[in-house]
Amino acid sequence: MDRITINHTLQNTIQQHGSKAALSYKIDGAYQDISYAELGKRVKHFCLGLIELGVQKGDRVALLSENRPEWAITDLAILAAGGMNVPMFSTLTSAQVEYIVRDSGAKIICVSSEKQFQKVNAFKADVPAVQHVITFDLIEAETDEEVLTFDQVYELGRKVENGDDVYESAREAVAPDDLATIIYTSGTTGDPKGAMLTHSNFVSNVRACLEILDITHEDVFLSFLPLAHVFERMTGHYLPLTCAATVAYAESPFTVAKNMTEARPTVMASVPRLYEMMHERIIRAVREGSSIKQKIFYWSVGVGAKVSQAIQQKRKPSPILRLKAGLANKLVFKKLHAATGGRLRFFVSGGAPLPKSIAEFFHAAGILILEGYGLTETAPVISVNRPDQWKFGTVGPVIPNVEVRIAEDGEISSRGPHIMEGYFNKPEETSEAIDADGWFHTGDIGEIDSDGFLKITDRKKNIIVLSNGKNVAPQPIENQLKQSLYISQIMLIGDQRKSIAALIVPSFDAIKDYAKENQLETDDMSALIRRKEIQQLIRREINDHSTQFADFEQVRMFTLLEREFTQEAGEMTPTFKLKRRVIIEKYKDLIEKMYGGDR
Predict the structure, then answer these.
(1) Angstrom distance (rounded) from CA 185 to CA 230
(2) Rounded distance, CA 23 to CA 31, Å?
(3) What is the 3 state secondary structure string of 294-358?
(4) What sign does the dihedral 404-239-227-157 (CA atoms) show?
(5) In the chain, count of helices (H) and strands (E)?
(6) Which of 27, 85, 499, 574 has the greatest number of beta carbons closer than 10 A?
């Protein structure tokens, strides 16, 4: 296989599909397209503008922005100049941004808006390495000569003499093993580490996924996960741009439902929380309907589940079952398909474990969710289910050209062209993560079944060790308990304790509905969740959803919280993983009260 760069893949796509829509974004209430030819022109001129500002091969350029066309153009321009993109989540605080900028040594920072600019402006004067700030939106930066707009840099590049030659020379000087990015892991503890990924890391991962996922230039992606995260960076950016698919940007994470019906994607990647929220909204709407509508819905789900089982067992559904399935689709599932835009081929799930029951529900409705697995350090995909080869509850077979092995303690290691170069300026952490034989130790616990499907049990660091020495993997239990209509979020605790306890965020809407049905006062949610009736309800739900777990894995105590875990409060990562140590510290008094100070 020839070894090429991201620059080469983009150029190949432009040459073969120049007139096709590359990016699509909302302006004045309607989606507008940027063709691949136009994208190539904008990347070239912005790249030349960066070069005029002094960006040389190996320089770091930081990028602090929400998903938008300028993000894609800036990223590709940085790579064409031989630089490294240092992407940052738009939800980061000024202090977090400063840490990454200082640690990476970025000489230019690109920001989207006034809000993001102010984060940088708070420390810019104290970081002399930063030479310029480039803003995508027009902002009021007084008369700071170091602050330029995207359009100003673009025009600077457009006026370069012999621009085509300069651009081609810079682009061709980049080698496959050159670094493309430093992605700082969001991290659930401590300072983030910068994973160094090469052009070859991404290209190999994209090619392997295209080989098995049947994605073509006819597909349309809806991009809403942060492009600063490696999952969206590969699946919603490099992968579609390699095969000439179209990327439509959601306006925000809060408009995804509306944007799905407008952009009408054929493929979409997300973290499990989106699918869980979709499921919650569907079930809530059903509960609010009449008894006959509820019966029709659950009958349809039952029919769909039988069709799903037949498909999984590679059997053809019987004529009667096909007739029932057609009726179920007409009565119920057709509306769900319309809500996704009407032409979705499949969802992809990653970033966190997808509850098996959620995957089963959607497939019963005729929507396939392909769960995959990977990490920032693996560019990112290690394994993924295929459209023609999948098993719910697993993260699929290992992708081509990637190796996986399971250690005696269950830890997953991986080796191949997708593994990062290491952590930026952290040789000790690098040697701890990647051994002398090139195996990257993921920190995840898992197993490979007889059919070659990888199953993730939990994070090694998340394993709860009870005071009696029993080990408890919290994620499978949490995922099972979240299947309760009344439990929205949950985190198990109990390390070095006698038993398992839980912090639970109830589904507030469902709790209100239950309270109304049982003539309980609903005006004060804080008082409501402390009522004996609600506490008993949650206890029944925990018991009903825990029958498959061992006695020592049962939740013995719980506390209902008055608000959700959020990114803004520092309790979740941008891909909605719980920051367990942060939550434990924040709620330590409640935890001690549950346990009565007993260890």
Answers:
(1) 9
(2) 10
(3) HHHHHHHHHHHHHHHHHHHCCCCCCHHHHHHHHHHHHHHHHHHHHHCCCCCCEEEECCCCCCHHH
(4) positive
(5) 23, 25
(6) 85
Contacts of 480 (CB under 8 A, 6+ apart): 355, 545, 546, 548, 549
Q: What sign does the dihedral 508-510-513-518 (CA atoms) show?
A: negative
**Residue type present at position 257:** A
Question: Tokens 């803004």, residue?
Answer: 568
**Residue 491 clears pLDDT 70, i.e. is over it:** yes
**Mean per-residue pLDDT of the chain:** 94
Rounded Cα distance between 67 and 64, Å, is 10
The structure tokens listed for 437 are: 């034989």
Domain architecture of the chain: domains with CATH: 6-212+220-251 (3.40.50.12780), 272-342+345-417+430-459 (2.30.38.10), 464-595 (3.30.300.30)
Structure tokens at 460: 């090694």
Return the H-helix or E-strand segment holding 526: helix 525-528
Look at 27 and 467; give whichever has higher pLDDT. Answer: 27
First to last CA, the chain: 57
pLDDT score, position 446: 94
Q: What is the pLDDT of residue 352?
A: 83
Pair of tokens at residue 321: 């079952």
| Residue 188 in this model has a pLDDT that exceeds 50 | no
Evaluate whether 484 touches 514 at the Cβ level (below 8 Å).
no
Question: How many Å is the maximal CA-CA distance in the chain?
Answer: 77
Give the chain's length. Answer: 599
Give the whole-angstrom CA distance, residue 530 versus residue 424: 48
> Is residue 102 within 8 Å of 88, Cβ to Cβ?
no
Spatial contact of 73 and 44, defined as CB atoms under 8 Å apart: no
Q: In this model, does residue 186 exceed pLDDT 80?
A: no
Instruction: Tell me how crowded residue 164 is: count the other CB atoms within 10 A of its CB.
Output: 10
Give the predicted TM-score (pTM) of the model.
0.86
Please give the share of the chain, as a percent, with pLDDT higher than 70: 98
Q: What are phi and psi of 342, to 5 degrees?
A: 90, -5
Write down the pLDDT at residue 143: 62
